[in-house]
Structure formats: structure tokens, C-alpha cells
Amino acid sequence: MFSSFRWPSARVALVVLGMTAATITPIVISTPALSQNTVPSTTPSPATPSPETQSPATPSPTSSVNLSDVSSDYWARPFIQALADNNVISGFPDGSFRPNQGVTRAEFAALIQKAFPNQNRVRQLSAGGFKDVPAGYWAASAIQNAYETGFLAGYPGNVFRPSEQIPKVQAIVAVTSGLGLTGSTTGTSTDLSTYYTDASAIPNYAVANVTAATQSNIVVNYPDVKQLNPQQPLTRAEAAALLYQALAKQGRVQPIASNLPATQYIVGATQTGNDIVSLAASSTSLTTLTSLLKTAGLTDILQQPGPYTVFAPTDQAFAALPAATLQQLQQPENRDALIKILSYHVVPGAVTSSQLSAGELRTSEQSPVNIQIDRANNQVSVNNARVIQADVQASNGVIHAINQVLVPPDVNISQLNQPPTGNTDGTTPNVRPGRTTLGGPSYIGGGGNIGLSGDDTALGDSNFAVFSKIGLTRNISVRPSVIFGDDTLFLVPLTLDFTPRASAEVGQRTFSISPYLGAGVAIETNVDTDFGLLLTGGVDVPLGTRFTLNGAVNAAFMDETDVGLQLGLGYNF
């Protein structure tokens, strides 16, 4: 709740002002199988030692965790980590997981055997087995199990093609077939184009299975949740996500936490919000950025349709700034600098890493950043910052996590650590008309006046008002305004602006209340010009980078004492 502020007066009590604004291998039937004519003539064997070569009962020593190439902010880490902890998947001998490596049909059979070890057998493999899977083949047992439990089937000619990479759509068909998942005609859409922009690329034989998988929330698409890429080879990360979701569907594991960024890639999952601000807020590595966006009043902008591209510094990136910089950036006197810095991380339009090109890229702050591309190492840098996680898709753009904070050329970070000072001789305050004060930026606006008492001037009646705030120093403003009416009144108070005293969050937005008190002169322009003492007190409520809500009580001591309540909206400058 907002706090109320009161200033004692013989006839006036300041009105309490507040605002409650703030994220697999088929039963291959004859139609697709007949179109595949290549049959390997030799027995396949893994080119590199594979974790799937291990017995389901003997997990790899690296399977329990700490996979060297699955960072804490990697999109599929929740799926991979949970399956590794349950010995469903394993790492390689060198401690890596190789999440982007393709999965062969033999490897997928081994994963199925580990994930679903107690499935009922629905058929029996002939005594000779598949012609291209010798009895001593490393995955012979897993392939037989996957076939007999209904997950996988062979191709015409009694071959299995164990070393062939499995397309994503075949893996989805395999899982839904083996688990007996079927689509529903009630409560969810059966039109796959509702979920996927490339629904037309799904083979006819797989449509029913993909529908069932989609409705069961076991399909996970990265980086674009609406792009299935059905014929692309399944990666190890995608296999982990698919199998985990299938286990969650069976109730054998808990669904991943709804606040994790990975949920945005689960097709059909209920989302609390997947715009840029919501995704940043749900990330455990972007908490500082989220807080600063709120302080700067930029959350409402980055929740608009956009689209935008955000180079998002991680918490570690902000922690690497000079000591006390973060605290200084959150002070009202440094708000303009904070807005400049954050805007320097935002680029209009949705630009994925593959669309970035070397050279300058203009930001929302109007100053360009320099993009460097190292295609050989698949690395993108922005100024001196390295992109450590690219292409996090939001509903209104894309996020690229970076390891350093970008500072625009016209902002001096070191100066933020210095306390406000006066002139160079230290004798008088530094006066700069139109500056931002403790209470927020300067503005000009319009609104209304509600007469509370008296009828000597326009202040005592309900009239239209034009008002302004012109910051002079860190604490002092002049706030000229005009109350129009039969007895038009000019108000020229000098006010003392206080640091925001209260704040409230509404949704993703934070509003602060900045009180002020002042005195000045009231000038009545009628037949004769009349002057009187003016007392004023009010609050400013910044609504973002552009607007400030103002409310004030003014008392003008003329022939009589007139009191009015002024309410309006100012445009910041």
C-alpha cells in the first residue's frame, strides 16, 4: 500500500494520494518406410564412446551431475539434470554431455530402455532379429526391448538402421506409441497449425501421434516454441526434454518448476507470461536486470508488442561493476543514467544470433553497439561483452544473455560513485534548470483543479489547470502553474523535493511516491492584479520514462483564503 503524507495547516490537510497502477523414433509403417531405400551393408558401431553403451544398471560416473558443457542457464538444463540424477541419461567419459549432438536410433533405443524399464511387451522380435543388428552389437538388447515394447520398429527388409540419426518427429511417434498416448477431441485443439508454424512439414503418418504428444505437453521446441522442425535430427538435449516430459506425463517425475525459463519451450504449457520482462523475472540469473528495469520504469515498455532484442547482462555481469555502482544507479538522481544504460542494451526488432552481422547496431539509446562475429567458434560479442546464451525467444522479441554490462559512451560510471556536490568552490548548490531532482524528472502537464474552500479566485472552484515542474538543484524545484477561470490564478511556488518515501508493485511495475512542500506567490489576474502568499504540498508518481502523475493541495491567501486540490498528468522532459 502507498503511505500517506500529511502537512499540518490551519485550514488544509493534504489529501492522501495513491495509485494502484504494476517452454521421439517411430513405429515406422510401410508408407514412410518404403521411401527409404538405403540399407547399411555393414554393422554400425559408435564412432565415439557413447554413454548409451553403458548398461542401464550401471550409470556413468558423470551421470549424476556437473556435466561440463551444460551451464546453469542452458535452456534444457532442468530436463538434463533431472534425468542425469535419475540415471536415465549419462555424460561422456570426458565429463561432457554434448547436448547439441544428434541421437542415433540405437542410442534412442538405449535411452528408452533406461527411461521406461518396466513397459509391457506387446510383440516379439523374430529369432534372427534385425539383419543389421548382430547379436554382439552394443545396443542389441536395447533395440530388442524398444521393438517388443512398441516404441520402435524396423524398416522393410528386416533392418533397423541403428546408426541412422533419428528425426524429431520419429522420436515423438516412438514415445507416444510406446506409452499408448492418444489425442483428445475435447478441451484442446486438434489443429496442429494452432501450435506449429511448420505443421505442414509433419508427415501424414505422424499427425495423430504429434497431436497426442502436443496435447500431453511432451513436445519441447527450442528456440522457437512454435517451430517443430519435425525432420531435423533429434539432439541429445531435445531427447532429454522429450523423455522428461513423457515421464512427467506418467507421474514418475515432478513437472519442472513453472518459474523456470525452460517452461516457455513446452508446447501447450500454461504460461504466466512469456514477454521479455516476464522471462527475465523468471530467470535466476537475471534478477538484477529485472530489478533495475522496474527502478527505471522500463518494464511497461518491454512488455509492449515490440518486437525488441535485449542483450541481457547476468547477475554476475552486474556484480563485476565497480563497488557501490548498483546502489548509485538506483538513486533518483542517477535515474537518467540508469535509463541510458538499460536502453543501450535494447535494439528495436527481433534479431536472432544467426541474423546478427559484424558492424554497428543502433540501440534504443540511439548510440550504436559494435557486433563481432566468430562463426568458426560460434561466438557473438557485443562491444567487449560475450553472448553466453543466445536466442531466448519471448512473445515480443528475443533475449541474448551477456557476461558484461554495456555502458553507453556518454555515461561515466565512475562519476555515479561520487556523492552529489555543489559548485567547484563548494559554496552554493549546482543550479541546472530542467534537471531531474530527488523526486524525479522535470515535466509540463495539464489536469484539473477541485475547489475545496473559498471563492475569491479560480483556485476555490473546479477549473482546468496547466502546471509544471522545473528542477533547479538536487532538492529544489520551481513549479509554476495556472488555474483558469473567472478569476484566473497564477501560482509560482518554490518547493523542496524529497526522496521517494513509498513504493508499490502492481504486476511487473513499481511505482514510487515523491513528496514535496513549498511556498511562493499567488497572482490573481482580474481587473486588478492581486498578490498573495501561496503554500503548497503534493506528491509526484513517476509512471515510466515519459509521464508523471501529480497531485497537490494549494492554499492561496488573498483577500480570502482559497484552497484547491490539483490533479493531472505531466510529460517528462
> Helix amount, in percent?
10-25%
What is the total tally of β strands? 17
Number of helices: 14
Radius of gyration from the alpha-carbon trace, in angstroms: 33 Å
In terms of structural class, how would the helical and strand content be classed? alpha+beta
The end-to-end span amounts to 29 Å
Q: Averaging pLDDT over every residue, what do you get?
A: 79
β-strand percent reads 15-25%
Would you identify the regions where 5 or more consecutive residues have pLDDT less than 50? 1-49, 53-65, 419-428
State the major sheet. Answer: 10 strands, antiparallel
CA-based shape: elongated
Provide an overview of this structure:
The protein has 573 residues and is an alpha+beta fold. Helix content is 20%, strand content 23%. The protein is built from 14 helices and 17 strands. Strands 8, 9, 10, 11, 12, 13, 14, 15, 16 and 17 form a ten-stranded antiparallel sheet that branches. Strands 2-1-7-6-5-4-3 form a seven-stranded mixed sheet. A hairpin with a 2-residue loop joins strand 13 and strand 14. Helix 3 packs across helix 4 and helix 8 packs across helix 9. The longest helix has 15 residues. The protein is elongated. The two termini are 29 Å apart. The N terminus is likely disordered.
